[in-house]
Design brief:
The chain has helices at about 35-50, 90-95, 110-120, 130-135, 145-155, 160-170, 180-190, 190-200, 225-230, 260, 280-285, 290-295, and strands at about 1-5, 20-25, 50-55, 60, 75, 100-105, 205, 210-215, 235-240, 245-250, 265, 270-275. It is of the alpha/beta class. The model has no long low-confidence stretch (mean pLDDT about 95).
């Protein structure tokens, strides 16, 4: 099968994806994505037309209702399924039938989903579904195997060659030990990124139950997920300012819903990114005084 890596904000052109297509772990775009569902997701769906064999995803979206009667769409909320691979079952793969291309998200959740589709809905290794859930929700402890993949992805999330190698390794049941060489080498690169992330995290300010840091100025690349988690160690909600973007996160089991709070139609309830121009709206929604925030 042809592999195509994507994100909700950056989808391939439909004409560039060959044959029958399955889309895995790609959320419907929200208004924060520079066009949202109507300008990003829907044109891709319409462009694929009857070539779209299935769209399987576990992120929240008000637009799911549009496709409730279309059996090609297997759509749930994050609360219903913490990770996408558990939706990829032997029964679903058999029902959909042969596909020529897989479009998947660039995180561990997405790569495992792609590999599991390639293996007919069977876990690439025992416990892969649970690992994907632990990493995507940040609840529980992923296995050492999953950590090796996750660290490599976080270090080189845009290295499409490496992502393809990882899907190959997963889809062949980790049978070729030599493939770990490049994966582990990438994972080691995360050490310097983590060090810079901790330096930035030292600048967090705690204001009215929110940990706030401006990460726009730094000495090197950072791990945004790690930075948000470090903020959540200080307060339940972490707010990271990075250039023109605001990143907001809370624990998966916090009960908070930033989508409703900020009037967004799609995404992950406990982690969102919005333009910096919405800073006032975000602070107000969080009950933080702009003067106290010092921004």
């Amino acid at each position: 099968m042809n592999l195509c890596f994507a994100t909700p904000r950056k989808l391939p052109r439909a004409r560039d994806v060959e044959g029958r297509v399955v889309v895995l772990d790609i959320a419907f775009a929200s208004e924060a994505s520079g066009g949202g569902f109507e300008k990003i997701t829907l044109p891709f769906i319409d462009g694929l037309g009857p070539r779209l064999a299935a769209w399987v995803d576990h992120h929240d979206s008000l637009h799911h209702a549009r496709f409730a009667d279309d059996p090609r769409f297997v759509l749930t909320t994050k609360a219903q399924h913490g990770a996408c691979p558990e939706l990829v079952t032997p029964e679903l793969v058999a029902r959909v039938g042969p596909v020529d291309s897989i479009v998947c998200h660039t995180d561990f959740d997405g790569l495992v989903s792609a590999a599991k589709w390639m293996t007919g809905g069977v876990e690439p290794y025992p416990g892969a579904d649970a690992d994907a859930r632990a990493i995507d929700t940040r609840l529980g402890t992923p296995s050492p195997v999953a950590n090796r993949f996750d660290r490599a992805i976080r270090a080189r999330s845009r290295d499409l060659g490496l992502l393809g190698l990882m899907v190959r390794h997963l889809s062949t049941g980790l049978s070729d030990a030599s493939l770990w060489v490049d994966i582990d080498a990438a994972g080691r690169e995360l050490q310097a990124i983590e060090a810079e992330t901790r330096r930035v995290a030292a600048r967090y300010r705690r204001v009215s139950g929110v940990a706030i840091v401006d990460a726009s100025t730094r000495e090197g690349p950072i791990d945004k997920t790690m930075l948000l988690l470090l903020g959540q160690e200080r307060e339940r909600v972490a707010l990271v300012i990075d250039g023109d973007t605001l990143n907001l996160a809370a624990p998966f089991d916090s009960g908070l819903d930033f989508l409703k709070m900020l009037g967004l139609s799609a995404g992950m309830p406990t982690r969102v990114s919005v333009p910096r121009k919405r800073l006032g709206d975000v602070l107000k929604a969080l009950g933080v005084d702009e003067v106290d925030a010092g921004l």
